[in-house]
Design brief:
The protein is of the alpha+beta class and 386 residues long. The chain has 10 helices and 15 strands. It has 2 domains: 4-305, Phosphatase 2c, domain 1, CATH 3.60.40.10; 323-385, no CATH class. Helix 1 (53-72) runs antiparallel to helix 2 (80-101).
Length: 386
């Protein structure tokens, strides 16, 4: 199948390549890919149909057409993330209606990105993926909605067990499987730099091609060649399913809006979440790159290594004393003051008691201290009356 090279925009250069695969029972390609400029930014979208040849293709086309129509007819006003999320939700409604009105068993995965001047919005449902290649690193910026991925996250099975699990191909979310489903939409735009590459693909590619292989190919090739080489590699390894990929190379740095800076701070390079491995299973256990409390995420190079190096050993700016240290010093000073007061009270009580004792029994014999070496090497004091 020929690669579709799309007109270059001031946002990104894109290319699409799709192939039905080598399985003789899957020669009707149920994948749909779209890249189009909208008032909200450049839309790149991949859908993988389910439900049989005709039903799957119809579901994927219905979903893609609805997302494109919603964004093309928009005014560009409002938040791009909200517009993208609403468009994918409406696509779910449209696909679900196929099963209600036409009595079809149909569904589709969907991964969509919206690249604009302030960053990239991401929305998805299912196991079609989006990767970000940034300065010699790659990370998956979507999370597979699959049964085995949930089991791994819950600690029920290991990643190695998940690879051969009988439910490895079962997904937990897709457009059209219910009237209302949760569409995962990124809360803040993903910052990007000129030269960064987004790769969107169906599981026909991600099942057979490793993330590092994707990175190497897009770094060595222009967009049309990269798309062709990625699909060709999947075919070399069996090509068991329809395989579709979009390669989008960003042309300019994102200009962070005030809301983005407020939400994620002033980030270094683009930020990502830790990647999954082929078939939705991570090759190694990595801590999640996102933090639930703030919604912030780690930069691309940190998401792969799983570690951060603060500016100073304490994590605070040089010359600035951490609050915990200041609290510790204050607590110590108060403790010393209370100890001094307690000693003073004890001394006063001792003097009062001795004076009363002398009035009752008269003066005590004069005594001199004698130092005697203790058995343990610790000196003790004895009083010897003279």
């Amino acid at each position: 199948m020929e690669t579709k090279v799309l007109p270059q925009t001031d946002v990104a250069r894109t290319a699409i390549h799709s192939h039905p695969g080598l399985d003789p029972d899957k020669q009707d390609n149920e994948d749909v890919a779209v890249s189009v400029a909208t008032p909200f930014g450049l839309l790149c979208l991949v859908c993988d149909g389910m439900g049989g040849h005709e039903n799957g293709r119809l579901a994927a086309e219905t979903a893609a057409n609805e997302v494109v129509a919603r964004l093309l007819h928009g005014t560009g006003e409002g938040e791009p993330a909200q517009a993208l999320g609403d468009a994918v939700r409406e696509a779910n409604t449209k696909v679900f209606s196929l099963s209600q009105h036409k009595r079809l068993r149909a569904g589709a995965t969907c991964v969509a990105i919206l690249i604009h001047e302030h960053g990239t919005e991401i929305a998805h449902a299912g196991d079609s993926r989006a990767y970000l290649v940034h300065r010699g690193t790659i990370a998956q910026v979507t999370r597979d909605h699959s049964k085995v991925r949930d089991m791994v996250d819950q600690g029920l099975i290991t990643p190695d067990e998940a690879r051969v699990h009988p439910d490895a191909n079962q997904i937990t979310r897709a457009l059209g499987i219910a009237e209302h489903i949760e569409i995962e939409v990124r809360e803040t735009p993903l910052p990007h730099l000129s030269g960064d590459v987004y790769v969107l693909c169906t599981d026909g590619l991600s099942d057979l091609v490793l993330p590092d292989e994707i990175m190497n190919i897009v770094m060595q090739s222009d967009e049309p060649e990269a798309a062709q080489r990625l699909v060709a590699l999947a075919l070399e390894r069996g090509g068991h399913d329809n395989t579709t990929v979009i390669v989008a190379r960003v042309q300019r740095d994102a200009v962070l809006s005030k809301s983005t800076v407020t939400a994620i701070g002033t980030p270094p390079p683009p930020q990502v979440t830790a990647p999954d491995a082929p078939r939705g299973i991570p090759t190694t256990e990595r801590p999640p790159a996102t933090t639930a409390a703030s919604g912030s995420v780690l930069p691309a190079n940190e998401a792969r290594s799983g570690s951060r190096t603060p500016a100073s050993p304490s994590g605070w700016d040089e010359g600035t004393e951490p609050p915990r240290a200041r609290r510790s010093k204050a607590t110590l000073a108060i403790g010393l003051l209370l100890a001094c007061v307690a000693v003073g009270i004890l001394v006063a009580l001792y003097v009062v008691i001795e004076r009363r004792h002398q009035r009752v029994q008269g003066p005590i014999p004069h005594a001199l201290p004698t130092v005697v070496p203790g058995a343990s090497g610790v000196e003790r004091v004895e009083l010897n009356p003279q």
